[in-house]
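A quick aside before the break. I want you to see a complete sequence-to-structure record at least once, exactly as it would be stored in a machine-readable document. Don't worry about memorizing anything.
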Amino acid sequence: MKISCKIKWVATIITLAGAIATALMYDPLNIYLLNIGALLFLIWGVMIQDKAMITVNAGLLFIYILGIWIRI
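That is the input. The structure line, written in tokens, reads:
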């Protein structure tokens, strides 16, 4: 299995865990998990050179980091 495929699946699992944490109101764990998932998907998007994945996940990462920054 290629490293890009492994990154994609780890990112998927972490992002789903973040969504579950959001649904169960585990705050701020949800934001941290979603940050990690977005970062991994951003890395994966760069690896496969998918501009849509890069754009979406860079935007999400910015929004999630902003959410952490506002809480501090």
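Two observations worth writing down. The chain has three helices and no strands. The chain has one domain: 3-71. We'll return to this after the break.
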